[in-house]
Amino acid sequence: MDIICVPLIVSVVFSIMEGYKRIAEKSKHRKGLIAVIPIIAAGIGAVMGIVLFYAWSASITAADALTAILVGAASGLSATGANQIFKQLHKLGIKVEEGTKDKDKSEV
Description:
Blueprint lengths: L4 H20 L5 H6 L1 H19 L9 H27 L17
């Protein structure tokens, strides 16, 4: 249970950044808004790290608040890296879809 904070922070930040990216893509200042995603992700992760440290200290492997901030920020940045995995696979022509589709009953 000591390391639950990392996947938790990565998942939450990834979801928030996907929503932010969809909103930013509709803006006329798209490039500038997209460029700051890693900074925002690190900030959200840092805030989550400190909140987890004080609210649910058993979930984070940090001895002090500064370490909690750094673990959170690194986890937030990991979310942007996770996004790049899917982006690079798409560039290689490998399609990754969300969820699974049920097979047609006639194929069984």
